[in-house]
Amino acid sequence: VQLVESGGGLVQPGGSLTLSCAASGFTFNRSHMSWYRQAPGKGRELVARISTTGGSTNYADSVKGRFTISRDNAKNTVYLQMNFLKPEDTAVYYCNSNDWAGRTYWGQGTQVTVSS
């Protein structure tokens, strides 16, 4: 099983980034997918979640209206489009999967830094 995140980096406040998570080794289209983040000195928090078909999404209040989660089941990939980024969005972002049997997997994380 692999979840490989990419797309992180340094961006100025107000800028945008798109994170990608390429999945392999499990049944992607039967797994709910999520993005979490962990800022320095803080716990890991849920950012966004998407259902198996993409028909249902949920967001943390802090990112609603700015972030969009999506998935492409043909490519086994989940995305996180991040707009109007703020310094408080600085964190390591992790991809997570959770399937019908309760199995959960994590990626290695990608750093997002919002700073001028």
Summary, kept brief:
With 116 residues, the chain is mainly β. It is 0% helix and 54% strand.
Question: Could you state the order of secondary-structure elements as H and E?
Answer: EEEEEEEEEEE
Taking all Cα atoms into account, the compactness measure Rg is 13 Å
Spatial separation of the terminal alpha carbons: 37 Å
Largest sheet: 7 strands, mixed
**What amount of the residues lies in strands?**
over 45%
Give the % helix. under 10%
Topology:
Blueprint: E1 2-6, E2 9-11, E3 17-24, E4 31-38, E5 44-50, E6 57-59, E7 67-72, E8 77-82, E9 91-99, E10 104-106, E11 110-114
Parallel strand pairs: 2-11
Antiparallel strand pairs: 1-3, 3-8, 4-5, 4-9, 5-6, 7-8, 9-10, 9-11
Give your account of this protein's structure.
The structure is a single chain. The N and C termini lie far apart (37 Å). The chain has 116 residues and is mainly β. The protein contains no helices and eleven strands. Strands 2, 4, 5, 6, 9, 10 and 11 form a seven-stranded mixed beta sheet that branches. A four-stranded antiparallel beta sheet has the order 1-3-8-7, with no helix packed on it. It has strands at 2-6, 9-11, 17-24, 31-38, 44-50, 57-59, 67-72, 77-82, 91-99, 104-106, 110-114.
